[in-house]
Amino acid sequence: EELQGRLEDVERAKRDLDSVSEQQGELRAMLEENAERAESLKCAVAGAAAGGLFSLPLFLASDFDILSLGSCVASSALFALTYRYAVTNDVANTQLKQGVVLAFGLTRGLAVVGDGGSGNGDGARPIGEVLGSALTYQNFAHCAQSLLLFAFVSAALELGFRRGALKLFGRGG
After folding, report:
1. In terms of Cα–Cα distance, which of 100, 81, 78, 86 is closest to 37?
2. Percentage of the chain with pLDDT > 90?
3. Among 41, 49, 74, 173, which is most buried by a count of CB atoms within 10 Å?
4. How many Å apart are CA 159 and CA 81, to the nearest integer?
5. 37 exposed, middle or buried (CB, 10 Å; 0-12, 13-18, 19+)?
6. Which residues have C-beta within 8 Å of that of residue 102, sequence separation ≥ 6?
7. CA atoms lying within 13 Å on the CB side of residue 6
8. Which of 29-33, 112-116, 132-136, 150-154 has the lowest mean pLDDT?
């Protein structure tokens, strides 16, 4: 009977140990997830700061409004988050990095090319009129500024990655 009792104690201790090991695994996963969130937040803040630094001179020197400055800061933060995840698996791939910059830059830059002209009310305009309104100096300048903005932010992020101040996703965050 005593031997049977001790055997039950050993089995109970084994179950308790398994439960503790499972809890440790869950806790470790939560800590890793929170560390990744903190790294994502650091990248977003760094991207927003870099975007703000890039855009501030434009804001001060032109008719750039506060909403445009806020748009640059917010889109830079979102770019930084996307960039962190996009380049994680292929850190040496410069085409990937340039592609992310180009995608964000063109999307933001070409967003101003819309239905800014006269039409028949249903949005249908002749192609020549659309191209004429799209190929203006103002639209070109906005597109170039957007490309430069994200290139500047990516350079700031790359500097942070190289110096260890920022970490790519899954790299010991």
Report:
1. 81
2. 38
3. 173
4. 15
5. exposed
6. 147
7. 3
8. 112-116
Please say whether the dihedral angle defined by the alpha carbons of residues 78, 107, 148 and 158, taken in this order, is positive or negative. Answer: positive
State how far the Cα of 48 lies from the Cα of 74, in Å rounded to an integer.
6
Instruction: Report the length, in residues, of the chain.
Output: 173
Residue with tokens 């949005």: 123
Owner of token pair 């990095």: 97
Burial class of 6 by CB neighbour count within 10 A (0 to 12, 13 to 18, 19+): exposed
pLDDT in tens, 85-141: 998 877 788 899 999 999 999 889 888 776 454 445 556 666 666 566 667 777 788
Token pair belonging to 114: 């819309």
